[in-house]
Amino acid sequence: MQDLTPEIEIFFRWLTVERGYSDHTADSYLRDINGFVASLPDGISLAEIGPAQIRAFIYSLHGTHKPSSVARKLSALQTFFGFLAREKLMGRNPLTGVARPKLNRHIPVFLTVDEVFRLLAAPGPEDPFAARDRAVMELLYSTGMRVAELVGLHKNSLDFETEMVRVSGKGNRERLTPMGRPAIDALRAYFPQRQLLLASSGRDASGDREAVFVNHRGGRLTTRSVERLVAMYAQRVGIVSRVTPHALRHSFATHLLEMGADLRLVQELLGHVSLSTTQRYTHLTVDHLMAVYDNAHPQARKRGRPAGRDKEQT
Fold first, then answer.
1. Which of 11, 26, 219, 290 is most buried, most CB within 10 Å of its CB?
2. What residues are annotated to the active site?
3. CA gap 194, 132 in Å, rounded
């Protein structure tokens, strides 16, 4: 196999400089690409790579990788070879015509409105960081932002006058998202504690001084810490399902759609590039769908279903 290092380096620069991907994301692409390169037989050139080599690589992953993992690797290869073909560094994309593994459609885990309210009210006087933890969960649910976006927030990202927050999402794409009044009130209640944590740790003059959420040492709160605190409070209020910060994001989207929000508006608020990603959230409950139907359709069950309509008719 010829050395693909120059092409991979060009691709890496394209990902990080032109596409704005983080080094972490770009590195994950490179791991998948290098895994494929390592599977190729000796002596094959870049021009000779075709569907046969792609299919052999997929077959080698069978039984050791989940379909979602295989799909991710193929997505990385599609981006890589597509880039090389556009840049005229190879003749054609070898993934053309290669079937992708079928994935089970994943329905995101979400909480009911009652469960969310119980979770947001969970921090109490016995919790040393109750004000911070409440602000964390209120902001996650109020904006639907990802946990990585939350912990990366700077204080100047918050605008209490316009009630908006500037979020830096995947690929360094920025978006403006409204903040609800409960989230703003929770943030204001937390800020005095934040200032004390920064001052007592000596970090009020360090690079962490702009972080919105800090830990007991005055450092920026981590995604793992947020995951732990959300799980702890969910367990405290008796929510049986496994609750993560992402479950609050899912709940944000689900509750908006249940209340009649436009799908494209939800897409914009979540920072999704593709509408198909947002469409995963259209798993509204049967009760909600029936309520909408009953209120909207002239032949619905507003006063009892008409005679003869109890059974399905064909």
1. 11
2. 146, 170, 246, 249, 272, 281
3. 8
Phi and psi of 103, rounded to 5°?
-110, 140
For 247-277, the pLDDT digits (tens) are 898 888 888 877 777 777 778 787 776 666 5
Instruction: Give the count of beta carbons closer than 10 Å to the beta carbon of residue 104.
Output: 7
Let me know whether 77 and 152 are in one domain: no
- Residues 132 and 257 both lie in one domain: yes
Give tens-digit pLDDT for 6-61.
888 898 888 888 877 777 778 888 898 888 888 888 878 788 888 888 888 888 88
Q: What residues does 159 pair with on adjacent strands?
A: 164
Co-location of 131 and 170 in the same domain:
yes
**For the whole prediction, is pTM greater than 0.70?**
no
3-state DSSP call for residue 284?
coil
Query: What is the C-alpha to C-alpha distance for residues 12 and 48, in angstroms, rounded to an integer?
Result: 22
Torsion of CA 179, 181, 185, 187, to 10 degrees: -10
**Distance separating alpha carbons of residues 269 and 284, to the nearest angstrom:** 19
Judge if 212 and 257 occupy the same domain: yes
- CATH number, residue 173: 1.10.443.10
Domain that residue 268 falls in: 113-287
Q: How far apart are CA 200 and CA 219, in angstroms?
A: 11
The tally of domains found in the chain comes to 2
- Overall size of the chain counted in residues: 314
Indicate if 166 and 210 belong to the same structural domain. yes
Cβ(159)–Cβ(184) below 8 Å: no
